[in-house]
Protein 1
Amino acid sequence: MPEFASVGLKRTKRTKRTKRTKRTKRTKRTIILNIMTSRLSVLKTYKIYIGGQFPRTESGRYYTAVNAKGVHLANMCLCSRKDVRDAISSARGAFGGWSSRSAFNRSQILYRIAEMLEGRKAQFVEELMLQGSSKSAAEQEVNLAIDRLIYYSGWCDKYQQIFSSVNPVASSHFNFSALEPVGVVTVVAPQSSSLIGLISLMAPVIAGGNTCVIIASETKPLCSVTFAEVLNSSDLPGGVVNILTGKVSELLPHLSNHMDVNAICFCESDAQQQKMVRENAALNVKRVIIHDDKKWNDDKSQSPYLISDFQEVKTTWHPIENIGGAKAGY
Amino acid sequence: MAKTSTLRLKFDSTRTLAPAPESKSIAKIAERYELFINGKFEKPASKKYFNTVNPATEEVLSKVAAANAADVDKVVMAARNAYNKVWGKMPGKERAKYIFRIARLIQERAREFAVIETLDGGKPIRESRDFDVPTAANHFFYYAGWADKLEYAFPNRNPQPLGVAGQIIPWNFPLLMAAWKIAPALACGNTVVLKPAETTPLTALKLAELIQEADLPPGVVNIITGAGDTGAALVNHPGINKVAFTGSTEVGKIIQKAVAGTGKKLTLELGGKAANIIFDDAPLDQAVEGVINGIFFNQGHVCCAGSRLLVQESVYKQVLQKLKDRLETLIVGDPMDKNTDIGAINSRQQLEVINKYIKIGQQEGAEMFQSSAVIPKKGFYCRPTLFTNVAQSNRIAQEEIFGPVLSIQTFRTEDEAIEKANNTPFGLSAGVWTDKGSKIFNMTSKLKAGVVWANTYNKFDPVSPFGGFKESGFGREGGLHGLGAYLKV
């Protein structure tokens, strides 16, 4: 781009900045001065997503997201136990409304999320590249993320037909078993992936009528916040998905021992952490789903069983009287 | 008990509703429509066209091509080619996205489709706007999602498409029936040739335009217009693998015979003579509303219409009075008026059929009651009609009238209700009205019908299978079971 020149500039407006690490390594994306038009680009503040709002962490803390070469990308919220609490409380508040939406309506909203993501593809490709993906890998990841949302959008009004049953009990009763969402789910997104991992886990959880709190990838957090902006413009009620950034090691105990959480989904292979999750879950008998090193970049990783993982089976008995019809053998 | 004293709802009022017509301006109807073959509109080899008429005014809306055997040949070739080269090979997730596009485009153009549906078919705009068009869009949405999930519907069977489907649909729900046919066929990987009914071709042709807009590969969906001979040429064409027909039992039998021995897969959705059964413990006002909706929805042009009312003797008088009172309040007239309850009869021919049955009913000794509604002078209209004193053997209790005519009979015991309800060659649907759950399940177990509505009537949803027992046809449309009609499993 011969007509452009990139110049690293110092920020002058920010007063509260305490650290100035790697200031000189700012990339041409983060601050671009277009000499031809003398326009300084505006940087995005990466915040968290709770109850349909974009607050900063209540703790006031931050950490610096860097790429593989150590280049500063953005300051992320370093969320605390209280942010987890607030997010769980909004997820619980949203559960009644979301779980009673019709399956068709949930399907339409997931489809809408896919439409919004498709429209902002370029932004995600750019963020993925900043975090170290090649252009083709980034494009493939975003395309796959959109298709995965469509895939689970399709399941919203179908998984019930796969997993439910009418049970031929021996007595004169109409007996059927149907699925119901388990409730509030905390999700630790796969740390190795910025976008596809988060979407692969979020979509089946909300397709099934649950609400969730997701901890984004600690090292690749950019897409999670931008994706929250997609959710926010997709008719998804606030609080159905809450997205936090921060350290998994710090937040995991709170995600797994909170008494108002019904299930937890954990995607790291660290045996110590897995054991802690399972132990903490026992406090209120949470359902625990652990995915070790699953390759989310593959259609094989998607299935309706990821939906049924976060469902309860409810069986209803109803008497059938047995009168007449003896001659009605037509 | 309030039920024994006949509590009358006060419907009479000095208030009359001002006209509330929907605008026609949104409907862009061309002067002439060609055949939609291989993604393009092509002139028919027959060089012949026929008129499609607004049954509410008898005005000609447009001219539509009449496809002959040569056109059918050409269209089946196009569908075969698209199946072999593109659609049959396309991954499910990509097929899905095309079908989702169709669904979205119908939603975007919903009002336009609703207006054209009402102009061409005579149904009240309220129904085409609130039922036909949204349900059609939702049907595409539902089946779009199945395209990459078929192995979950038929585990261990590696389900495969059939090939080219020939589909013939009736005039009572033109766009919705097109959606019921096209959506599952495409989701399963088949290509289609659809023939709408000759009196209501316009929304299907509009759908063809929309399919162009969705950029569907040419030949995947083809739409040809014509009368019965066009349909016969399609059914008998050796190049198709599947016939799906919705229409009368009479034609259904001819098709079943024609397809015999050809190896073509067949599904039939045929006529009905549904019993709507009111027990004495039912909430009667709610039941009466349900009965009214059951028989007068879409002028009674509904294969699953609740055209036989069976009322328990102990509440017969109250129910009859309530029905008559309610009948008087129904607004009959201009289908484009948003307050209209009963619009125009679909065609002159159908009006003649209905009038014939009204005569037969009187000749057979049944007592007739008609609403005193004033009907427009021009156009095809029929007053909502009740018959009492109907015997089980009367033709109006046995044959499908397909109009706003309800035959009322009584029963004393549950056994008698089941016996009478099942005493018909049809078996498409039934309705039960009672407050007792265990009685509902007794009835649903014993009624020989593909759909049983309890304390509701005429409910449809893309996820819910629909289809008949006995001479009402075989195969299901809607839901997971609807996929089976378009797959080798």
Protein 2
Amino acid sequence: MTSPFFKFGYFNDEVSLIVAFILGLAFGFLFERGGFGSGRMLAAQFYFTDMRVFKVMFTAITTAMIGLFYLSWIGFLDLSLVYFGETFLLPQVIGGLILGIGFVVGGYCPGTSSVAIATGKIDAIVYAFGGLFGIFVFGEAFPYITEFFYSTPMGQITLPELFGIDHGIILLAVIFLAIAGFTAADWGEKFMASKKEGK
Amino acid sequence: MNVKKWFHHHEHDNVQEGAITPIHYTNPYLIGLLLGFVLLATFVIMGRGMGASGVLSTVVAVTVEKVSPASVEGNNFYMGYLGDGESNPLKNWLMFEVIGIVIGGFISGAIAGRNKLVIEKGPRITNKKRLLFAFIGGSLMGFGAKMARGCTSGQGLTGGALLSVGGWAFMIAVFAGAYAFAYFVRRQWT
């Protein structure tokens, strides 16, 4: 095992900030190329008129997921050292629903709004100020919703662990799901296009 | 207040009024593949994924502390973003990453000729209403992201690739919420 490099002390905190900046450059460039800088493009996926964002996002997740599995399998990456947050099921589902509504109402999510601001979208700037306000409201409400925030704790848990199924099987299931999703997305796009023509 | 007039010169912009024109957007599966590799590189180099909403939280926590230090005391949410008090809380990994995202996005937009001041919306809504919706949507996002312990970047992309249970539950909820509510704001986009 030789990675994650940072966890094995190959470079210090100061260097990690430069690494963060460089990785950010790549993310930002690809986000913009993917169409994430446009609120109309992002919202289009919720109306099946253009599923581009959905396709980019799930191709990215699937690619990284397969890569992680492979690098861990050949002994290059120690997956146990890769950090991800603990699961608190109920607050995460409720938070996701609220964020999802905010997504279609506002047109962006936090990461995409930074690319949208960079490319001059005025509504994205207003959206980001809304984001600051929403976080402020959450911060002020926090003492009253602390109990809910920490409810249904499940620890740092993955889908293979939850279902007690082999990692590889879950991987195949997600790949299958992604392909089904892409097919459905193409079908949705065609359906909406023909509906528009029929008008 | 005639907001539309301020941005009058963009009135005939095809991004705003006409069909979405994906000029110079690359094939979505190719971009997804490259994005997946960058995400994988992040895991391999740093042992963590990417994120975005944490930066906004730090800005809020630092501001609240400046304005009213007493209200931060004993609030574990704010304290979590203020660090140990030794170093500047704004000098953190996510902050540098997001600065990179902004500059990277600008470079891509500049190459493709997509950098221009514009209000993104469908043809059936006024600029003023669109900006109001943007603020309301942003507020919901901010609140929701904190409730969920992350956004589409931290929970969705990162948690999704790591097969985190919370990440997948979150992502399914995001799409469920967005698709369920899309009908009510259709005049904004279509």
